Every structure is written in structure tokens, then in C-alpha cells.
Prior knowledge:
Shape: globular
Oligomer: single chain
Structural class: mainly alpha
Largest sheet: none
Helix content: 55-70%
Amino acid sequence: MPRSTGNVRLRAARQAAGYRSQQDLANALAARGVTVGIRQVRRWESDAPPLPQPDIRQALSELLGRPLDELGFNVPPGAETRTPASLLAPANRGPLRTPNAQQPATAAADFLAGTRAHRRLYWSVAPATLHPAVAAHAALGSQLLDATTGRTRQLLATALAESWLLAGRIEFFDLREPDRAGDTWVRALQAAGEADDALLGSAVLAHMAFIPGWGGDRDGATERMMAARAYARRGPASAELLAWLDAVEAECATRCGDTRAALNLCAHGEDVLATGSEHRSPEWLDWFSAVRLAAFKGHTQLVAGHLPQARDTLLGVLAGLPEDSDKQRTVVLGDLAAVEVAAGRPEEAALYALKALVLLETHWYATGLERIREVRRALGPWQHEQYVRDLDDRLYGWGAVVNALSC
């Protein structure tokens, strides 16, 4: 018999909101004037969670940012937590929904085929084109999940978690919509919980750390990384996955101003990769490798002011990136441009930035554009030079300007 996983939807939403323990959630509710003991929270996270009282429903929904039915509760008609906006919404905004029939055992494999295709297409298809397809595919999987049981349900939930994870990656890295990505990754974590897939849960939680990390919230990023590492310890984590966790934490530490800790994390990740592991990486871990760890390290060396080391590291990354890595290549070119600006070589910086912009015209990546815009600001003292004007002509061309100003 499969072991009980409890109310994974509530547990995932709690962890995504930064409440590591059931007691933390009880304390947060108490701060809102709602007295709930840890035993009650434990019952909510059980296999048969009782429906909270109306005042508690409202506080819980507001605290976790999700309606009660998305937190694993069976909400009877008329008992939903409502807001004025929902009361004013039109009653009929779409076709009548009918329950899906019980799905055959082949449903999981059929759905996974689409997930795998999207995983590969991510590296070549424009994000604005791919995202609607990925999101619609994930929405389909969410609808099918309740129409499956047993092993089929578990396999479908695993593929669904990956689909939501990819949708969130596009929102965060390609479209620069962190709030939207955070909501999407909660869905990914819930699906990973349904599948009881600890490694996917670890990957989702580590992605969630980027949101506070890029915002300068070190404590928030650390909380999520602690959870991500705890999940990784529960599964057969490969060396690549463990090193990627080091890389994510290093990126967050760098953005929060602690480059010493970040460089130590990069060094630890290098040691983990050198030692290796008996466990193979899951097939969805296609965004990380030793050369990508070096890219994280080069960026940290740049921020730390270690310019010669950063230049050598980033040039090595540029030479080692696979051909299908143009998104990552734009980021590396941006970092190399930043190295040259800091080293007092503005013309070389402009040339690297120009190369990145050429790639961005065919492989859009908001994170890459962010690097180039930072370099352009640093080139302010040389803005009347022809090489900077050439950069501006490309940066603010008819096509590029719309993307640049919308990010």
C-alpha cells in the first residue's frame, strides 16, 4: 500500500509562503488574531482535513494567498470564502464544466509526452510563444489528476509538477514576472507532493528561493534553501542536483551582498561534482552542468571585484557552453561586458554587449537583457562615443525597444 502523504496542497502552500513548520503557521494566524493550536494545523494537513470555521477560513486563505479549495479542503457549495470582487464577477464566464471520466492507465504517459516536448522546446522557442502552451498543458493535467488513481495518478502528478515548474521558470527568468512565477511554483510544489517526489519538490523550493534572493531578502531565500536541501536528502539526489542547490544559494548570496559565502558555495559545488554520485540526475534537470556552475562563479567573482579571475572564468564558460545554450550565452556575454566596464575598457564592453543583443533578437531572455541594461548604465561616461551609440542603436531598435521597456 502507498504511504499516506496527507494534505500536500496545504503543506506545499505553507512551505512556499515561508512557514517551515506547522507551529510557524499557527503563530502567523495568531498574529492575525486567530487562535489555532498546532494540533489543529496537524489535522488540516492530514488525509481528511476538517473544514475550518468561517473566520479561520478567511485568515488562512489571505495568509497563504489561495482559496480554500486549492488548499486541499472539501468546500461545500455556499461555504467558500468570498471577496467583493468575486461577488461582482459574472456568473457565467465560460463553458459549463463537467467532471472528467476516469482516465485510462495510458493518460500519464500521454501527458508526459507533452511535458517532455515542452522541456526540449524551451531552449529554442520564444518564451511568449511557448508559455501559453505550457500553462494550458499544466491546466489540463490539473483537471485530469482527479480522474486518475494509483500509479497512474502518481506518474501524472510527477509530469504535472514538471510542467508547472517550467511555466514558472519562463515567467521568472524569461518574462521577469516573479509574483506570477511564485504562484505557479506553489502549484508545482503541490503536484510534487501529490506525486511524493522529493527531488522535484527540492527543485521547486530552490527555484522559489530566487524570488526573495533576487529581491535582497537573504533570510527568505535561506528559509527556502533549507527546505530544498531537506527535500533533497529524502531522495536519491545526484551530484548535479546537489551542486545546483549550491549554485542557487550562491546566486542568492551574491545578490544579497555576501560574495564570500557565495564563492565558498561555488567551491563546494565544484567539489561535489568532482566527487560524483552513484545516483543519476533526473531527466528534467537539463538546465545545469559543470559549465553552468562556472557561470554562477564567474558572476560572483565579477560582483566581488575579482576581475581577472572573473574574465578567465567567463571566457572558459563561453567556450564550453553547448550550441543550444544561447539564452545562457547572453548572460555570460553581459557579465563579460560588465567585467570590461569595471576594468576601464568600455569599447570591449560595448562589443560584448552588442554580441549579446544580436543573440537576444532570436533567443529572447529577460535575464540576459537585464545584464545588458546594467552594462549600458555603467557606460554612461562614454555615451557620446561611437561604439556606445552603436550599442544604443541595437538596444533601442524597433523590435528590441518594445521588449526592453516591457520587462
